[in-house]
Design brief:
The complex is a heterodimer of chains A (254) and B (246). Chain A has eleven helices and no strands. Chain A folds into two domains: 63 residues, no CATH class; 182 residues, no CATH class. The model of chain A has no long low-confidence stretch (mean pLDDT 90). With 254 residues, chain A is mainly alpha-helical. In chain A, helix 8 runs antiparallel to helix 11. Chain B has two domains: 63 residues, no CATH class; 179 residues, no CATH class. The mean pLDDT of chain B is 88. Chains A and B meet through helix 1, helix 2, helix 3, helix 4 and helix 5 of A and helix 2, helix 3, helix 4, helix 5 and helix 6 of B.
Chain lengths: 254, 246
């Protein structure tokens, strides 16, 4: 009965959230372009799926990924007792890396974009390569973000370092890869990774002594966003060096 | 109908299989490293099933409604070749789709609850819900602005890097100088803002616009909008926090 009530409130919330896009699309369809809706039936069924799906998804998150991220952070952080060495924090850092990697691999937005990139690049960028490099970037970003929370380094310091690193890599990277690299992190931090990481960061800051939840509990998702940019730009650079090396080898052979 | 149902079940089981790595990571850390049974394990497994069924329906529904509609609208608006209409359409797409983003809603709710428990936000449950909603609307307006300027940029043929790198520099400088307690929240909300609904729409718009420009590069045309769309909320939330005195 309680679940039904939650679902009902959730459905109303979902419909309210879809109102702005419905109105705006309606204005452009009927007022600006003055065209009737194509395939009204199919669109109505689709919207029904969106409302039901979004409601179930949000309700499910609240009892699955969010509490899991929360309880894992609390349990793993409790292993590191005050006064114990850095090894005590190894599990929490390893967990951040593995969950970031696993969650990014199944991110539906990234999967769709990776397929699109294969078509746009004429097959040079393979979907699996892209997904793995991006997932490694998310894992790396989360490791840095977690270490920052554990050591109590100010958020702004890590942020500044990462932004400078991205800027330097952009200046040296092959031009074609730059827009994709800059977008990749924003694509990776999506429906699966974000709820999990957000709950994990807040619980970690709450469990460790002397951490402000608002200042230290947030700042992980932005690291998961900047990580893939660094990873892809480094990958592009390494790939270019490898290609040049291959070419030089051919010349020598001739 | 039964055939459709079969397709749907196949999709869910595929998503369940895809979910396996996450479950494996959680199980390994829970049982091997923590060495204790997981709290509420059955509720959470049920929640995972609910999440996956919801996600499958949600993505399928978007493919049937919002995305084809967005595609036909983008085609129609692009063929009008009016800069003003295109820029307004860019704002509408960015704003409308961001309000519907579930990842942003999750982060906004957690930010509101945390701000309330940390004492930054006074008031009861109603105030917390209002803060989350305001945060989402501010982010959506910022994404709208980013897509609108992005449309202008693409039509002018300016590279995305010109905006994204200085934008990140600005966001970082504001974070360093303001010392606002909301700085980290601003960056995370921006990162969460671009997700399942607005990314495909932005890519459609980007590639549609590229057809208006003569020198085209397929790989760079569709991209660059998304980075700016996640960056703009980081700047706008921080500036709003400074303007409102923290």
């Amino acid at each position: 009965m309680e679940l039904l009530g939650t679902l009902w409130i959730g459905t109303i919330g979902t419909i309210t959230d879809l109102v702005p896009i419905a109105i705006l699309f309606g204005i452009f369809q009927f007022v600006v372009l003055r065209k009737p809706l194509p395939e009204l039936g199919r669109i109505s069924i689709g919207l029904f799926y969106v409302v039901v799906g979004l409601t179930l998804f949000r309700t499910g998150l609240g009892v699955s990924l969010i509490p899991t991220g929360d309880s894992m952070a609390r349990q793993l952080a409790a292993l590191g007792e005050p006064g114990s060495g850095w090894q005590a924090f190894l599990p929490i850092v390893l967990f951040a890396a593995s969950i970031g990697f696993a969650a990014t691999l199944i991110e539906p937005t990234l999967i769709a974009v990776a397929d699109r990139v294969r078509d746009l690049s004429g097959g040079t960028v393979q979907p699996w390569t892209l997904r793995i490099v991006v997932a490694l970037g998310v894992a790396g970003g989360l490791v840095l973000g977690t270490v920052r929370i554990v050591l109590g380094v100010p958020f702004e310091m890590l942020l500044t370092g990462m932004v400078i690193l991205v800027a330097l890599l952009v200046l040296g990277a092959p031009r074609v890869m730059v827009p994709l690299a800059l977008d990749s992190g924003a694509i990776a931090t999506s429906v699966v990774t974000v709820p999990l990481i957000a709950a994990y960061g807040i619980a970690l800051a709450e469990t460790l002594p002397d951490r402000s939840v608002l200042i230290d509990g947030f700042g992980l998702i932005i690291m998961a966003l900047l990580g893939p940019a660094v990873a892809l730009l480094l990958f592009a650079q390494a790939y270019r060096i490898y290609q040049n090396w291959l070419k030089r080898g051919e010349h020598r052979a001739v | 109908m039964s055939e459709k149902l079969l397709v749907f079940f196949k999709e869910i089981s595929k998503n369940l299989r895809d979910f396996f790595p996450i479950l494996a990571v959680v199980v390994i850390f829970q049982w091997v490293i923590v060495g204790q049974p997981m709290p509420d394990v059955w509720v959470r497994l049920g929640g995972i099933v609910l999440t996956l069924v919801g996600l499958t329906l949600f993505v399928r529904g978007l493919d049937m409604s919002v995305f084809p509609l967005g595609q036909s609208l983008a085609d129609g608006v692009v063929s009008r070749k009016s800069m003003l209409v295109l820029v307004i359409f860019g704002f509408a797409v960015g704003f409308g789709s961001t309000i519907a983003e579930p990842a942003l809603a999750a982060v906004a709710e957690q930010a509101a609850t945390t701000a309330s428990s940390a004492g930054t936000l006074a008031g009861g449950e109603a105030e917390v819900a209002r803060f989350a909603l305001v945060l989402r609307y501010v982010v959506a307006v910022a994404v709208g602005l980013a897509v609108a300027t992005g449309v202008f940029r693409i039509l002018k043929g300016w590279p995305a890097t010109w905006f994204v790198l200085p934008g990140y520099a600005l966001a970082t400088v504001v974070a360093l100088s303001s010392e606002s307690p909301l700085a980290a929240v601003a960056f995370d909300a921006g990162a969460a803002a671009t997700s399942a609904v607005n990314i495909p729409l932005m890519m459609t718009l980007g590639t549609g616009l590229a057809s208006l420009i003569e020198a085209r590069d397929p790989l760079t045309d569709g991209f660059g909008l998304i980075a700016a769309a996640s960056l703009m909320p980081m700047i706008v939330i921080q500036l709003a926090a400074v303007a409102l005195g923290g």
